[in-house]
Amino acid sequence: MEESRSYEVNFFKPSTPFLKENIRAIIIGLTIWFLATYGFQTLLKIMETPTPEATYVAYQQIAPKLADGSATAEEKVAAANTYLALLGKSGALLKNDALKTAFTSTVYDLLPGDAKETLLAAATKAASDSKVDVGFINTALGITENPAMMAVVPYALIKVSPDKLAMTDEALKPVMDKFFIHNQSFLTDTIVFGFPFHYLYTALLLLTLFVLICLVYCFKIDGLMKKYEMEKSFE
Amino acid sequence: MNKIKCKALLFLLPAMVFFASPAFAGVALEGSFKLVPAIILTACILLFLWVGFMNKAEGTSDYYAAGRSISRVGAGMAIASNWMSAASFLGMAAIMYGSGYHGLSYVVGWTGGYCLLLLLMASQIRRFGKYTATDFIGDRYYSNGMRFWTAIIAIFISFCYTVGQFGGIGLMFKWIFGMPYAASVIVGGTVVLAYTLVSGMLGVTKNQIVQYVILITAFLIPAFILTFKFKYFWLIPELGYGRVVSDIVAGNATPFVNSFGHAMQTVPSPEFAMPWDTATGKDFFQWMATCFALMIGTAGLPHVIQKFYVVPKPADARWSVTWGLFFICLLYWTAPLYSAFGKILSSSPEVGALAKDAIVVYTAQLGSVNPIIVGFLAAGAVSAAFSTVSGLLVAGSSAFANDIYFKIINPEATGDQQVRMAKIATVVMAVGVMLVALLKLALVAQLVALAFSIAGCTIFPLFLLGIWWSGSNRSGGIASLTVGGFFTVFSIFYFICAKFGVALPGAAFVGYWLNPWYFAWIAAPLAILANIVFSGMGEPTPEPIRKHLAEEVHGMRQ
After folding, report:
1. Does ipTM come in above 0.85?
2. Which residue range forms the structural domain that includes residue A139?
3. Optimal mutation site among B68, B96, B99, B101, interface A, most CBs of chain A within 10 A
4. Structurally, how many domains does chain B consist of?
5. What angle, 0 to 180 degrees and rounded to 10, lies between the N-to-C axes of helices B314-332 and B72-83?
6. Domain of B544?
7. For labelling alongside B358, which of A28, A48, B94, B390 has CA 20 to 30 A away?
8. How many domains does chain A have?
């Protein structure tokens, strides 16, 4: 009573029963709000493990062999597919000449003799015309059932000279690390309603929770107003 | 009577479009004049103007606060449409399309802020009983200097925000009419100006309800169509697109093609959904800081706070925020769907680089959605931008007319004079925005996020402490505003210098930790701290203000 006559308002020292309950509701609401938003993201951060894509794991075994020339035909196909999958990720990567050179060189290397010339011709043509026929490359890479990969091939070719092939390149490592390693955990790998769980949580459940917090708070305060008979005098 | 006419017109709209439809064809994403979208857009604008004219403001309190005659659900819709701008309608999907999970920090930040608003401020602001955010600060901190500077800040925030919107309007007018950016900015800007001017806030509020209905319908219909067409769970598209996300992550094959005939499939792309993926160039700190800055910015934006004066009672303020958040979420639950479909439908390199800000519309086109509906979608985007711009113009002009002119320059001014000043301020502001938008600064799109950070570290701390601590006084308020203002100027200065290639000491440090998008994450807590520390040193808050705060705002009557 003393405090209310001095007209002191302090969030942490509520002086009337109504304010006490009101502030309790606010603190509970804000705590849920804070933990649900920032707590979950922090959990996501704590749980995460940098996880390379499967194709990159395989590639890392193959890369040294590409460099010293001991890679088998299958390994070259796998490497070319890795390059292709990387090129398909973003338009910006299609401007990475080292990457395109690695792809074209590897494909050149693994093709049979007469197809090599066809590849060089296709690479020259692809620079100006994406409608170039690359069916033989698709077949050689075993991607004829994968339209997403096939679509990238004409854009992945670059002019190479047969005496200067570079099937792998140290400069590619940072690019591959950047695009092939992802922060994953059971939170991202569990699928719920088709979503990766963390995505479902952040994009849908969290927003729903926000609406619920607001809804419950509104009912709570309306209840308090009734309880303390403040509706007429106060609202 | 007006309501009935409104509804009738809403039903007539699709019919008009239907009869005019056969003229539109073709799959080109950009380019020429598009007749049907043009008709839909023109019809929408005529509708807005007509609703504005029907609900013309008469007198000061009408102009500022719509005579406090709007229902809870209606006020909620107005809050939602006032809130959802081109940034929500177009920009969010664009960020997720380009930066994956980082984009969700915007989705969460722009909705979670409403919890802060409701729990800490909404009904208290309404009970304080002022017309504008600046009014509150000027009275609560009993300082005309504070009033003046917050009015300037409010105008600056509205200005930044509006320039960003004009970018969106320009983009859509360009898409629909195939006319150059400059012309579309001038045409679009003139129309917004016309009805804001004629109708004031009453027209604006009623308009915003109509605009909400149009924009949410325009946004949801293609979502149903896309999920239905591609055999995902279409009854709730917001859940149905989950499998699209997983398909993108795993690079799964689908049996479908886009409107160019490219397969609807990506190479495996976990970077689209995995948190703070290095491929997106954004990290964990940036996610958290952006999200936090947007949340407190939401609770500090003058044009958002101002909406609470439109409702009759504090209880209505609370319920209208809750309704508002729900209506906002209807769009926000759906926005990531567009980025996911956009990603999977545009994966072929043959599609080329798309203007990210138009990805929502392109997605519908790539998914072979009926051109009429795509046109309606584009019109919805313009509606979104229009409704926000009109709210911003009112907030900015009333900060000038009410807070600077009436309270400081000419306290003798009559209601008529005030309304006239508000109108002049609206015109000046709109013309200024058009000019800046015409400069086509690289900054334009980023100005919206900047507006949030400014609001978050200047206005939000003043409201928070002003409402919940009677000990916060003028000295504290000035300190708080100075800290927030300093960070704002500092961050913008570094950003502009970096933009023009001037090397400043510590530029990398400032660019990362105090980026204009999210510097409020630290600036706001420091402003609050300054408020507390300096309040302790200054004269106590005068009794009438403490009494008003205790009795009227917090109901401490014994």
Report:
1. yes
2. 51-184
3. B101
4. 1
5. 50
6. 32-553
7. B390
8. 2
